[in-house]
UniProtKB/TrEMBL annotation, chains A, B, C, D:
It comes from the Bacteria. Mg(2+) binds at S305, D367, D368. Keywords: 4Fe-4S, Glutamine amidotransferase, Glycosyltransferase, Iron, Iron-sulfur, Magnesium, Metal-binding, Purine biosynthesis, Transferase. Residues 15-240 form the Glutamine amidotransferase type-2 domain. The active site is at C15. It comes from Ohessyouella blattaphilus. Catalyzes the formation of phosphoribosylamine from phosphoribosylpyrophosphate (PRPP) and glutamine. This is Amidophosphoribosyltransferase. InterPro entries: GATase_2_dom (IPR017932), Ntn_hydrolases_N (IPR029055), PRTase-like (IPR029057), PRTase_dom (IPR000836), PurF (IPR005854), PurF_N (IPR035584).
């Protein structure tokens, strides 16, 4: 299931970034458009593109707006965005008022000319940094962390010799999770936080370099995957090629890649830090099969995010994989939701059970997570109504128990069923015959050898977090 | 793959119809909206809803527009469409200029008050009927067949005692393929052409009756499937229940259901004339496995329309089913196409290969049809680039050779690769290792015992068609 | 004051029509756009243009929509409307739901190909004609009289030798007020009803001919005024020039030109049937000065429609003319009206008094009519608050007492202050010091020698009207 | 004539500001909307409103957009702007790309919470101040001077005890022309630059205070004019009433009010610094009559800006005032301009001559300025074609000769006809019989006793200006 419905609170910094630099002068706006299009799953609230012509006046032109990439850009606007260096951004849909001013990239004029910045992630010390900056006369026009980062880069740039050094100095001040893409008049800079919480990678096609949140975006523009930007690494792409600075990285093994990228966020055709997302989900499915075997006739996944883990469970258990659902391809942001009284049919509008497949069968239903439990309950009800004899639910992640301070949009605790109920209670509430969650200790099998963050399951944060005390409060 | 890209010529009458009648006075616009939403795959060009309040003034209110159901309707417009009897329509995207005036339902005032009509299909004698009508002073404001049908109903209504009789008399004049939904002040009438080329079914929830092109739309509104409208049947739903007239039906076994509904058009969760579309595609896949066995490691389908047939091939052959592609969920109508020079990446924007799945594997690739061959060629190229050792293409329909006069949008012959090349040539052109098409004689296994139309493969039309001579010309 | 606010009921057929035929093949869509733009005051609800290329396929292309000419058309849509023969229409804003389907021109296919029709006016026997047509199987898709007219032309065309003859035969059936512009594949036909209630004139620039509701539209496109179409005349413009048929005209002197065209509707720079609208209003103002002299310091008009009559009063009385008001140039259709509680300021947003001009002065305030009296009361209040010592109101038309059946949108009787109150009562209600209405017998001075209709003041209709009895009821 | 067409270069800071503070808690968004609506003539490019609830959370909510007030706001957006303290802005239409990010008010978070700022005017030291700020790490997201002002207020606020003091300290740094409206959490502050180049005034209705660029906006919301903000004055409105600080004002008589506010910008129903704009224009007209008398039959003004001066000329000369033109009320921003080849008719679409008025007459034509001369030439041509025997042009301002650095949008010198031609040449070019410009020495009669700026005519700037050298260059 599309998770965007789950959002109700949170800072909402799951986003996608994409940068392109045509060293031979080729216009990049169209490529950025396609790149963002491939990253649309990472954010549907707003999007934007800023480009500059490195050989000309180096004036930055940008366009941003609320809505999907397809809504905001058309042929006319793309062709007016002339320039061979540019960055783009898709922003997550958060609850509440439309915030057009928060659309990225942030384009600023500063001491060294123009600079555009796009980021994915959440700073944990943003509030303190804002206060500090305000005490020296800073003004803020948005509520996004990019503005804090931009101020730091601008201030450091006065004291340093290059944009890269300014980015590095800024990174020594900011804390939290981030993947950054910055375009300075003739440079495209990418950076990941020292723990590598958010992904970023490099691609290339001909003389054009790309930076992207996920490798799928590089494939979409016909580029070759070059490599991941490493946790803590700053890369700078200029006409002289790529330079790299990895001195801010945490010690090997201390990285804290967000495990949820593999479980849910990223596309199955992306590869992050050497691990295919598809592979990681297959492994998760197999692990579930091992931990919670059950006699059944068919393994099915909740489209789209549960499908690959279901395949893994099938492979692990030897029980056939089936397609139990038709998902409506036209469900999008602007979908008018049925009124509360018709709540059940809200799921039906998105998903319908293929009766023939499930009738008389014992079903293993795989999904990536349970948030409030309502959606799961509705799906199970639909399966049983279609004749499923048993429904065994397997969840490819451990229960959510702790808040995420790094940009993953998890509902507040009262709304998390796992926070207020035991596994047995949940099983009963959703109407499943049995219920199994991915075991914590098996998470590392998904990305063997790679340090990752599982704080939302364990409460063990890779760094100090502002609300530590608050989170203890509800343990 | 989404087929709408294949359209370049043709009459474009693949559409979806949905009607709802709340006998207890319940407003139906929201249900029609969700019903049309479930039928959106049948038409993306325009849509519309017309409702009337059977207990009040019986004034018809309607709203139509170019675009998807989500684009045309919002909460405000839905709540202004007050009425307990209504019909809706989604229209197929045809090439060429936007034709706002062709959006349905057609709402008319005639001798007996107001009448709304929506239909799916194509009349073969529309041109003659228009001429005939014009000779008696008729004026036409659209180019849709509904207007011809409406005229006939209006004229017959003068001579007959009921709307049903007028519909029947009109059906004796019109020829071709159609599924009709008509709302007369206090009746909802549904009808299928005598051969049953286009599907239509009846659903119910509480005191509300539904008519829908496919059963999936009834499920979407939380209704129960009651039964199919039979080929040649006219059903009338009033507060006294359902009445039926089947006297126009062709002889049992002579029906000519469009086989392409099962192969491609209809949703896999729909059941048409007693046969699950999912089931029919599984059977097709199995038949392909039987006809064209090959040693391979994995069977994969082209999303979304090839997936179920691929599953069938896997079941038939015992070769594992795999997911080779990630399909971008945000691809829609307004997508800006890459310029010709970037042609290859157009497919990449929609689909990306999951390298891990196909690397080093011998792949069986199942799709529902080959039109120009370009898309297939690109997909095979992508698979090979991702490391597939062999790609064996299996198509779940026989080659297109003849034009369809009943509303299926098939490109002109020059564009059909099967029309100008042999199977071996096509195999080579698309870069496949082997190629197999569904065998004509096995089509009936998909819907055993049901009469169907396979004229696009055989040229044997169930009735006289206007362009018969033309089609002979290119045989 | 802009009168469109006064509308609450009525049939709303005040409209503007414009046709252009480039005999040398020149595209006419841009000219029609500017022509409609000049006629925008005649209708703000919807507009449309239909063009055809007389030398090519003669396919009709049209675009219609709700809103002002500027909202509906842009450069792109204008340049897609290729053709050297075309007609356009602006439609009046009526109360109630948006009626996109009622936008004109009406474009139809009929026995002789394609035909577009646009009209201004109101048929008095439309209801009977619709019924009659329905009894012979006609279907109606709109509620506009054009559809009735189109049916008659289509039916007559079967029996006649030319489009002109068909138009003439149709005119013998329809009754009421109308100015028609019709484009038949290679002809542009214009016609006025036998009484000449609605205006229509002919213009020319180079080889392009124009038909327009008012001569101002011909000036706007740089054309020369040729002549008026006469009451009852049918003109046909082809590459062979203009032909005329005046056999349907009423007897000289029996014409019934709408006097309100001169009082309020038409632009002051238009000339209708030989009389300048500006001149007619000056005469009206002078007549008022003669009938209701008063000692005063300044004559001011309510912008914009009262300004010229005020000038006339000034000329007639010798009392200086002054500008008492600033009118906000940005007031338009989409203006958000203040809530009832702020009613008074609604006028203030449109008009503001220039204090310096009126302070300490005895003012003669000229307006074209009083409908409900609220606006007049507010304006007088504003003048007095700004220091006017006296306000003497002079109205350049007699009191409205009878309904108009010919397309002038007059509120229902209960809302007409003149219908429920005496002149003295009205004077008191609006807070004027004295009040004078144009005298009935002086109306003819405005358009000496020309027959006109004053039924809204006298109840003496030039022809039988459907609601005669109803109107008697309230006499 | 509407002057916005004249714009081709320049900084474009002619704008309108409006603030409202409901001390009793009344919502102010609707009032701001109407206030901006009344100021729409001061800027049509973009507009915005920012409001805050002084008794609640004091969160600032804002909405800004490209377009007219009517385009950007609707009932829904106005009702979502809840708050009893708010400011709004309309921005001038400048040539070039749309600059959504430059729409005002600028809303910032700074050391003391949230602050909104709107201004009209142009800083002459903006470039230096930006550089200075950048050297201390400032980042800029727009190109508007408000951002520079906001930074200074923010930085000064750290060192000062109140927002008023911070505004004052900022004003000691910035140079140029400005009228400021600032909303700080519980204060509404207004300020004019020491020379008073731009106007600002105070109004009141019940417990709600207003600040507005022109008094017409106060009238539009039903308020009473309280007084002008004085040149150099800072007023602060809180629940304790109005406080004032005038210590920054230049010496009495040294003020430099923009004379063009009286000649052209401001509405005729506004009063600025004690002088009615209407009155000033009457005086200008009289002065023209005195300087350039001519025998003639009629004085006419070019709508709308020449009308009052024409009235003044008529009063001064005793020659009757006439209405020679009908101006199309629907001309607006989105008007599609005729192609170059139809240049002449561009004026005709906006204005049409009322033939009857001018035929055979010797006309005195009054306008406020001549920029390129094209429009004047077209109008004179139209008058002559309509039969005017003579056309004597009188311009109510001296010739433009010097650039304005304070925000008045004057074309570059090459485009100014007065810059490249003598009066006699211009007279000939535009086809006038005689031509007279307002005499420099008579300007002061328009606003007797008030210091004003006439630098665009004389080159004598009230303060140092950045381009002094440049301007000398073309003297």
């Amino acid at each position: 299931m599309n998770k965007f419905e789950k959002v109700t609170t949170g800072t909402g910094e799951e986003c996608g970034v994409f940068g392109a630099y045509g060293l031979d002068g080729e216009d990049v706006a169209a490529s950025i458009y396609y790149g963002l299009f491939a990253l649309q799953h990472r954010g549907q609230e707003s999007c934007g593109i800023a480009v500059t012509d490195t050989s000309g006046e180096r004036k930055m032109i940008s366009k941003k707006g609320l809505g999907l990439v397809n809504d905001v850009f058309d042929e006319e606007s793309l062709s007016s965005l002339k320039g061979n260096l540019g960055i783009g951004h898709v922003r997550y849909s958060t609850a509440g008022a439309s915030r057009a001013e928060n659309a990225m990239p942030l384009v600023i004029n500063y001491i060294k000319g123009t600079l555009a910045i796009a980021h994915n992630g959440n700073l944990t010390n943003a509030v303190e940094l804002r206060k500090e900056l305000e005490y020296t006369g800073a003004i803020f026009q948005t509520t996004i962390d990019s503005e804090v980062i931009a101020y730091h880069i601008a201030r450091e740039r006065i004291k340093t010799h290059s944009a890269e050094q300014a980015v590095k100095a800024a990174m020594q001040k900011i804390k939290g999770a981030y993947a950054l893409v910055v375009s300075s008049p003739r440079k495209m800079i990418g950076a990941r936080d020292p723990f590598g919480l958010k992904p970023l990678c490099i691609g290339k096609r001909g003389d054009t370099y790309y930076l992207a949140s996920e490798s799928c975006a590089i494939a979409a523009v016909g580029g070759e995957f070059v490599r991941d930007v490493e946790p803590g690494e700053i890369v700078s792409i200029t006409k002289d090629g790529i330079t790299s600075d990895t001195s801010l990285a945490v010690e090997k093994g201390q990285e804290a890649r967000c495990i949820f990228e593999y479980i849910y966020f990223a596309r199955t055709d992306s590869k992050i830090d050497g691990v295919n997302v598809y592979h990681a989900r297959i492994v998760a499915g197999k692990a579930l099969a091992e931990s919670y075997p059950v006699e059944a006739d068919l393994v099915v996944g909740v489209p789209d995010s549960g499908l690959v883990a279901a395949k893994g469970y099938s492979e692990g258990s030897g029980i056939p994989y089936g397609m139990a659902f038709h998902k409506n391809s036209y469900v999008g942001r602007t979908f008018i939701k049925p009124k509360q009284s018709q709540r059940e049919s809200s799921v039906k509008i998105k998903l319908n059970v293929i009766e023939e497949v499930v009738k008389g069968k014992r079903i293993i239903l795989v999904d990536d997570s349970i948030v409030r439990g309502t959606t799961s309950a509705n799906i199970i009800k639909m399966l049983k109504k279609a004749g499923a004899k048993e429904v065994h639910v397997r969840i490819s992640s451990p229960p959510f128990l702790y808040p995420c301070y790094f940009g993953t949009d998890v509902p507040s605790n009262e709304q998390l069923i796992a926070h207020t109920h035991t596994k047995d209670e949940i099983c009963k509430i959703i109407g499943a015959d049995t219920l199994g969650y991915m075991e914590l200790e098996k998470l590392e099998e998904m990305i063997p050898g790679l340090g990752f963050c599982d704080a939302c399951f364990t409460g063990k944060y890779p760094m100090e977090v502002p609300g530590k005390d608050v989170s203890h409060a509800f343990e």
